[in-house]
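Trying the structure run again after the queue cleared.
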Amino acid sequence: MYIDNTWATQFKVLWRVCTRDYEMLSVSIRPFYLPREFGQITVILAYVPGPNNKEAAEAITDNYNAALSRSADQLVFTLGDFNTCQLSPYLPTLQQYVTTPTRSTRILDQCFGNIPDAYKSVNRPPLGKSDHNVIHLLPKYRQKVRREKPHLKTVQQWSEEGEEELRHCFDTTDWTMFFDTCADPQDLTDTITSYIKFCEDTIITTKTVKVFSNNKPWLSKDLKTCLNEKKLAFLRGEMDLVREKETEFRQRVFKAKIDFKNKIEQRFCSGNAKQAWDGLNVMMGREQNKQSINITDCSKFVNDLNTFYGRFDVRDPKAGCSTVCNQTGSYEPIQLSEEEVGRCLSRIKPNKAPGPDGLRGRVLKSCAQQLRGVITQLFQTLLDRCTFPNQWKKKHNNTCTQNPEGGGS
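Done. Tokens:
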């Protein structure tokens, strides 16, 4: 294996073996330049003379999986003379880049990779007296940052001062005015929720950030600041400062990766199934493609769901409903307390996504003591009038469709 010094000088031989059934060499390479979405390159050279192709394919598969376990965001290429050995049953996700004959009309020399459409193969004359053609692989891969445009994202900047100002705003609000002026429960609910959102949008500042498609999940603001300082020092010609910032940047990157690794592994010990699956998806590099459906008739859609999920229910719900309706008169009216509502608000997850009403969990949790009175009075009014706001009946449906290629849902 030959490596051009102008392309890379940092490499390490990970594994080498020579048996009767196969010869294999695994090398890890860190080029001078590599797209940000890839951390390094691992090249697995193999020669399989046959006829025991199964053992050779299993060894190549184990070596490939070991390379991905070291770093999931790296390029892994498996190339060599495989003869009649087939890797597709063992590694179905790899793509074969050599599409032109390598010896006569047969493709014996192959090159597999974990990046689709990365290279285009072109035939070249053999070297010397070799009976195998030279295959020139022309790169077709486009960087992720060039294929996908960055998108703008508006985020809120929460701080202790902002939360305190928001609490003060709710403390000085005359909530009785809303109940005196709004006779309809629907209008009362809309007015109160709109006022809470108005105070949040007015007090809590926001900023617009640009998110690039090739950003690493462990890349933080401090790392970007350190990298920008290094670039400015290079433009000013301060080479001593450049080397100092380079050392500092490497140390911070190493610490950021370790912290992110511990954060992901901690999710498996939290007892939260959602966080555990999110961590597993991050470790596998699996992107979540959320798909939504357009519903024209909401009532029909809900009834169809009820019919589908209740098709195995043999009980008659009408008998239970009539029993509950007949016993309703014997029950005492429900009375809510501010302490109970305040405890429920303080237990809300701050990062929980808002519903159709737009109320964020962080606002309800941070201002639980200030909002418990008005929310208790609002709930009590709705219970006394036996009404339910229309906006609380709405929801967003995100359906997960089955992958037609045989993957997960």
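The chain has 13 helices and ten strands. Worth checking whether this holds up in the mutant runs.
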